[in-house]
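User: quick one, fold this
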Amino acid sequence: MIVDMSILSLLVFVVLVVIGLLIIIFIVGSLITFLPATLIAIVVLLFTGSWLYAGIAFVVIAVLMIIFRRE
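Assistant:
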């Protein structure tokens, strides 16, 4: 019984680590894809100090990138 529980715990641990790695890879991939939007958002954040304006800048640039990429 004790051996079964430790094997189950190890299996759950491995599954959670894999899920976490996939999420990190997805986030990093998204940031690389939207690198210009990320850089603009960082510049806006540094100049204004407002997370709201930085978020708006990121969304606007990301939408423009998607629109112009399709053409």
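User: anything notable?
Assistant: The chain has two domains: 1-30, 34-71.
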